[in-house]
Amino acid sequence: MKKENKKIQPNIKHLILCEGNDEKWFFIWYLEYLIKNGHSELDCIQIEDIGGNEDIKKQLGLWKLSPGFEQLKTIGIIRDAEKDADAAVRSINQCFSDNGLIVPDAPFSLSVSSDGPKTIYGILPGFVENGELKNGTLEDLCLQILIDKQSESKMDIIQEYLKELQTTFDYKIHHIHKSKLHTYFASDDKYIGSKIGEAAKIGAFDFESPCLAPFRRMFESLTD
Q1: I need a labelling partner for 57 at 20 to 30 A (CA). Which of 13, 51, 92, 117 fits?
Q2: Number of other residues whose CB lies within 10 A of the CB of residue 41
């Protein structure tokens, strides 16, 4: 649970609350990339860590009480789909509803209220080709957008390594997506020991990847 004082900066019009510190810093650096590459209008977006899924409802309520909330035009949420994207959508919708905010019609879709801020939300890792939400997490998205041109071949080796570990020592890795990504980081001197946000800052990910398109449109829709 996040305990620090919640403060909305003076120039901020749009607040995006993320599930966890990794998501917060990943999207801070993605937003910084967009701002530096022709989207200076996005500098009025503030991104904060809301904690785990179980904290979202309470934390959203606390942000509503924070100084500067009345200046916001939009409040949004980004969280992992985990094993059930539909359940994640229902949970977010309930959080908005329970906090007296308008419930968006669909993921990545901005909804307008007559008596409060607009709302929007995104689900990680995004969409599959048929337009349905994927199950998964930020790490799954990160594995798709590694900027290293050899990352796919390296990942094949990493996957075999992790499979052999589990077989040889008779145990199961329960967060295989995390293990894959951080094993990749550990294999490169540039990223070794990095958290996702740190890796994003130093260039591990392709911020022009089509996989990020829903999140880019989400940010751009706030300032249209």
Answers
A1: 13
A2: 14
